[in-house]
Give the backbone structure.
Amino acid sequence: MSADWTGFAYLVAAVCFIMALRGLSSPTSARQGNVMGIIGMIIAVTTTLLDPEVISYEIIFAGILVGGTIGTLVAFRINMTALPQLVAAFHSLVGMAAVLVAVAAFYHPEAYGIGTFGNIGTASLIEMSIGAAVGAITFSGSVVAFAKLQGLVSGNPVVFPLQHPLNAVIGIAIVALTVALVFGQDPTSFWAIVILSFLIGFLIIIPIGGADMPVVVSMLNSYSGWAACGIGFTLTNTALIITGALVGSAGAILSYIMCKGMNRSIFNVLLGGFGGETVAAAQQAAGSRSVKQGSADDAAFIMSNANQVIVVPGYGMAVAQAQHALREMADLLKEKGVDVKYAIHPVAGRMPGHMNVLLAEASVPYDEVFELEEINHEFSTADVAFVIGANDVTNPLAKTDPSSPIYGMPILDVEKAGTTLFLKRSLGSGYAGVDNELFFRDKTMMLFGDAKKMAEEIVQALN
Amino acid sequence: MMLDATVFTQGLVQVSEVANLAMSAAGGVETAVTGGPSFLHLFTVFVLACFVGFYVVWSVTPALHSPLLSVTNAISSVIIVGGLLAAGPAAELADVDLSSLMGFLAVTLASVNIFGGFLVTQRMLAMFKKKK
């Protein structure tokens, strides 16, 4: 194929990827969108394989076979609760692939037509360093995020003195090494950039607590896009540049939405150290006040006599895998003529949209599930708000107490409902370490226990 | 409405003329030296793609943010192209050097992502159903 046709094929692939994202504007068009994405990928790969320089089909197909088999098995076996760590793991692979391609380009620039070893153009070297550095940061950052989400290491933020100055020094060193690389064409500088980038990726993510993971996952998604972009510039490949830019913007927008959902700036999240230490103190304070505690029978009675119930699921529901029992409960209530809806807070769960997927997995129709802005005004007319495994996202302190760490965060107004049922394991505070004032109100009833067990008991009581 | 459309078309014509001029000016100089597209050319593509990404992603419904993450994950693995070009020149096992080895590994990792990413997205999307 001539260069023009190759370029045109890459453009078609890029347009397919744009259509793939466009499809996600509605659940009805999303599946066709995904198919467009697959078509785009097939076009891009086929076009590259037809390049006359590419002759080693055996080792290429070996790689695709091994990788494809692993990917397929993982995709079919993964539990939907574990999606956030799966996505983190996938991000790390994109990052690593970017580093590997950058290494290949550095030692064998002829394959990409950007010079010869030791004699690579300045622009290409800078692009290569950016691609390698961002790729390495994506890799090690995603590995840390994966370990935190999978529970391999504690989700608590890890903070130590001089953390941020250290990061700044490493950042400056990477820039200085890039300059040295441009003038010296020296492999040592190149490897130093890669190693320092691995290190800083690790250091950026460790201070961030488990509950801020929706931001981290989105941010690493963005990084993986920019890494692809950097490599795209090195390879002068427009498909890579366009795709990288799409992914980069997607991740950036998701990070922004997640930060806004917590009323925090991205810098505040990145500086880390949020949550973790204050939990014990808050629990003690809670001990001295009295709450109204109810049983599954009470909850079943209250809800079956209601006209409208709004369910507010949180991360606790995901951990307990309570979504199926919850849907059964909702079905029984609907049979009794109760109107049941679901309200999702933007930062519920450990990744953007996680709750929606879990509810969909439990066969909850998507048109019963609403976003915060769509449903918040309905709490005042609802008889019951059923909060399952969520806490901070309902805390009215976010509106009233300017000194609270969650002040200004948009919340679901469950306090306005006739009765608020909280299904929780204990009175413990949420990740922000803030006591929830709502637990102690007259209109609130606490249902203590494992989310799944309690939901199953309510189902029995309803039968 | 008619007026709007005319103004809009005129605007488009102007923009494309300017872009053409800029491209030929920049491209003419650089292409002669490197033989490939110029940096400005690539940068133009990059900036426009960022804008497309911005508008397309804002139109994604929040309910599908998880599939958005997994599908962007899959498509960013188009970086496999770089791996293919690096692995490409080694015709036999004996020809495998550092670069083609790196290329092979990149192809393998990106394949995990491509297959895994698209399939898990498909699995997720298949679960989203409307009320019966």
